């Protein structure tokens, strides 16, 4: 009988400790989410560039030379009809 009471009290204590730790964890996670939302959107924590942003690099000039002799020969070899055996 005594061991049954001891087992019941051990279960009650373990469940109570588990409940309070879980509630504390849930409150801490909610507080962390609130802080993350605040710091992500608060104006005084927004990033301010120290140096001016450089203009993007200009686009490269287009090549106007066309294909060379080797490239034309390669494409001709690819598009040539294949002889059936």
Structural overview:
- This protein has 85 residues and is an all-alpha fold.
- The protein has helices at residues 2-41, 69-79.
- The longest helix has 40 residues, at 2-41.
Key terms:
elongated; 85 residues; mainly alpha; 2 helices
How many strands, which pairing sense, and closed or not: the largest β-sheet? none
Please identify the structural class as seen in this structure: mainly alpha
Number of strand elements: 0
Low-confidence stretches: none
Q: Helix and strand succession?
A: HH
The global form is elongated
End-to-end C-alpha gap = 95 Å
Question: Can you give the mean pLDDT?
Answer: 87
Short précis:
The chain has helices at 2-41, 69-79. Helices cover 60% and strands 0% of the residues.
Reconstruct the topology from this structure.
Blueprint: H1 2-41, H2 69-79
